[in-house]
């Protein structure tokens, strides 16, 4: 399947709603044609500035508006970030991702992160950061520092977005994506499922992602991690097969994008993760933490990948 961008929500709904076995067969065929199904990309995500975020994202334990167990921490020193990157490389990760809980960083903060990016890049790793909203000039500064990917998720459909976030508009997010593209950076852009949305909202999210031209090089699909103290704690859990359907539809709609099975893996069975990888996901985060939430950890992942006859990509 060749990439296309003129998707409608009804078309995406039809893809997600196809007979399950037909959907998975076609998604896996597209995946196999574009990627090695026996190899996954491995990344590690580090929170380089934690908590005290002024946004009101209903899923996020780092928001200053919610009472959670997350304690605010200042931006890490570049030397500490680079030391963590060396450990990540030693554990098998080829991409090092850095996340800071900001609404929008100031120029000084961007400069500090850019310094760390340059040093991590010198280790031979791919680099990715997520810092919130960026201006065009800030995106260019990061590009000049050697940044490979900028992560800025759309989270959900435009129609459901207001139920999740009120402090930042959908257009704000699209503007940052445009600034990142103008700086010749690759996009890491996806969303979260299991937030109480309907299937139509999951289709709407995929449509927004697929309308980006070019498609995001990396598309993280996150399953909500319910954290006590956040408004979404206690939300009805998503049918696991809806996650598989969403990933399969993403594979068909964005055939060349790397689909990343991201947050929520600690609450997934091995069988569910295997289905997600079969449906088109080909990237995971290593380590036992994703920013502030649990992740399966190296021993568990090694065991699972061994059982699936799957290896981790090397640089």
Task: Give structural notes.
This protein is an alpha/beta fold and 315 residues long. Helix content is 39%, strand content 17%. The strands form 2 sheets. Strands 1, 2, 3, 4, 5, 6, 7, 8, 9 and 12 form a 10-stranded parallel β-sheet that branches. A two-stranded antiparallel ribbon has the order 10-11. Strand 2 (95-100), helix 4 (107-121) and strand 3 (126-130) form a beta-alpha-beta unit. The longest helix is centred in the first third of the chain and has 15 residues, at 20-34. The model has no long low-confidence stretch (mean pLDDT 92).
Topology:
Elements: H1 9-16, H2 20-34, E1 39-49, H3 78-90, E2 95-100, H4 107-121, E3 126-130, H5 136-144, E4 149-151, H6 158-161, H7 170-182, E5 186-188, E6 191-193, H8 199-211, E7 218-223, H9 240-253, E8 258-261, H10 270-279, E9 281-285, E10 289-290, E11 293-294, H11 298-307, E12 311-312
Parallel strand pairs: 1-2, 1-9, 1-12, 2-3, 3-4, 4-5, 6-7, 7-8, 8-9
Antiparallel strand pairs: 10-11
Helix pairs in contact: 1-8, 2-9, 3-4, 4-5, 5-7, 8-9, 9-10
- Average pLDDT, rounded to a whole number, is 92
Beta-strand share of residues? 15-25%
From N to C, what is the helix and strand string? HHEHEHEHEHHEEHEHEHEEEHE
Named CATH architecture: Alpha-Beta Barrel
Which segments are poorly predicted (pLDDT under 50) over 5 or more consecutive residues?
Answer: none
Radius of gyration: 18 Å
What is the number of helices?
A: 11
- Measured distance between first and last alpha carbons: 28 Å
Q: How many strands in all?
A: 12
From the spread of the alpha carbons, the general shape counts as: globular
What's the structural domain tally?
Answer: 1
The largest β sheet comes out as: 10 strands, parallel
CATH superfamily: Aldolase class I
Q: What structural class should be given to the helix and strand makeup?
A: alpha/beta
The CATH class label is: Alpha Beta
CATH topology: TIM Barrel
Helix content: 25-40%
């Amino acid at each position: 399947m060749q990439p296309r961008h003129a998707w409608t929500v009804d078309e995406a709904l039809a893809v997600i709603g196809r007979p399950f076995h037909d959907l998975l067969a076609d998604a896996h065929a597209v995946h196999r044609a574009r990627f090695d199904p026996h190899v996954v990309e491995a990344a590690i995500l580090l929170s380089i500035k934690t908590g005290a975020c002024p946004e009101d994202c209903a899923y996020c334990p780092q928001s200053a508006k919610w009472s959670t167990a997350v304690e605010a921490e200042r931006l890490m020193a570049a030397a500490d970030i680079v030391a963590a990157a060396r450990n990540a490389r030693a554990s098998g990760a080829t991409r090092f991702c850095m996340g800071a809980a900001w609404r929008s960083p100031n120029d000084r903060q961007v400069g500090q992160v850019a310094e760390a990016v340059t040093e991590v890049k010198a280790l031979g790793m791919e680099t990715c950061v997520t810092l919130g909203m960026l201006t065009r000039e800030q995106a260019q500064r990061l590009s000049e520092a050697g940044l490979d990917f900028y992560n800025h998720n759309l989270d959900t459909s435009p129609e459901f977005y207001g139920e999740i976030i009120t402090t930042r508009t959908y257009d704000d997010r699209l503007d940052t994506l445009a600034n990142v593209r103008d700086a010749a950076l690759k996009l890491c852009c996806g969303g979260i499922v299991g937030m109480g949305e309907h299937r139509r909202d999951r289709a709407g999210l995929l449509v927004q992602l697929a309308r980006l031209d070019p498609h995001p090089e990396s598309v993280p699909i996150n399953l909500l991690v319910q954290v006590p103290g956040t408004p979404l704690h206690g939300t009805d859990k998503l049918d696991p097969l809806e996650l598989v359907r969403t990933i399969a539809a993403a594979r068909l709609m964005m055939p060349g994008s790397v689909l990343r099975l991201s947050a929520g893996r600690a609450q997934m069975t091995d069988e569910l993760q295997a289905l997600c990888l079969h449906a088109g996901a080909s990237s995971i985060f290593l380590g036992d933490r994703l920013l502030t939430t649990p992740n399966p950890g190296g021993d568990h992942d090694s065991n699972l990948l061994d059982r699936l006859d799957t290896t981790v990509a090397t640089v």
